[in-house]
Design brief:
The complex is a heterodimer of chains A (118) and B (111).
Chain A lengths: L4 E3 L2 E4 L5 E6 L6 E8 L3 E9 L2 E4 L8 E7 L2 E6 L8 E8 L12 E2 L3 E5 L1
Parallel strand pairs in A: 2-11
Antiparallel strand pairs in A: 1-3, 3-8, 4-5, 4-9, 5-6, 7-8, 9-10, 9-11
Chain B lengths: L4 E3 L2 E5 L4 E6 L5 E9 L6 E6 L5 E4 L2 E6 L4 E6 L8 E9 L4 E3 L3 E6 L1
Parallel strand pairs in B: 2-11
Antiparallel strand pairs in B: 1-3, 3-8, 4-5, 4-9, 6-7, 7-8, 9-10, 9-11
Classes of the chains: A mainly beta (118), B mainly beta (111).
């Protein structure tokens, strides 16, 4: 079975440019999560969706970040304009939902996008 | 703000040794605890999801216990092998559906 697919794997761009990260969750999973990993802060949850609807975006650092999930098989995380401090590895994960949401379901992670803003 | 702590930050063990590490979390409003294994240059892989006080789960040589009243979970590895070298993450989920990962314990198993 295909796992969570993220693209691109690596992105290098100049400060001020728009960056779009993409994620395809595992088919049938109704929860999708976006995480950012940095040396300083570890793995941080940015936003998650349930049935394509954003549930909690309190982890989104600022207005420059936005995420969408137009359908069950695709999500994007956009940074506009990008800044050097946005450099990190961004992970997407998906899970099933059952009972109290997805709390008791393991998350399946993609391989991540390594983003470097120069 | 939920604060999830893990200890130790890192450890080195010899192949064949058994080891354990700790995840500590605020016990109020607890719903679930996840353990993940994260190898270098790969993505986190789910090991266990635990919800009940006193829960004990096992997968091969790895097992975990949960104490929700005192707010901790232990992960045990029996007879460590070099392929067990990874960062082990725990994540707390509360009734508000907030997911918070701990900083991880980095394990190195020396052959």
């Amino acid at each position: 079975d295909a796992g969570v697919i993220q693209s691109p794997r690596h992105e290098v761009t100049e400060m001020g440019q728009e960056v779009t990260l993409r994620c395809k969750p595992i088919s049938g999973h109704d929860y999708l999560f976006w995480y950012r990993q940095t040396m300083m802060r570890g793995l941080e949850l940015l936003i998650y969706f349930n049935n394509n609807v954003p549930i909690d975006d309190s982890g989104m650092p600022e207005d420059r970040f936005s995420a969408k999930m137009p359908n069950a098989s695709f999500s994007t995380l956009k940074i506009q304009p990008s800044e050097p401090r946005d450099s990190a590895v961004y992970f997407c994960a998906s899970s099933l939902g059952r009972g109290l949401g997805s709390a008791d379901q393991p998350q399946h992670f993609g391989d991540g996008t390594r983003l470097s803003i120069l | 703000i939920l604060n999830v702590e893990q200890s130790p930050q890192s450890l080195h063990v010899q192949e064949g040794d058994s080891t354990n590490f700790t995840c500590s979390f605020p016990s109020s409003n607890f719903y679930a605890l996840h353990w993940y294994r994260w190898e270098t240059a790969k993505s986190p892989e789910a090991l266990f999801v635990m919800t009940l006080n006193g829960d004990e789960k096992k997968k091969g040589r790895i097992s975990a216990t949960l104490n929700t009243k005192e707010g901790y979970s232990y992960l045990y590895i029996k007879g460590s092998q070099p392929e067990d070298s990874a960062t082990y993450l725990c994540a707390l989920v509360n009734y508000g559906q907030n997911f918070v990962f701990g900083p991880g314990t980095r394990l190195s198993v020396l052959p």
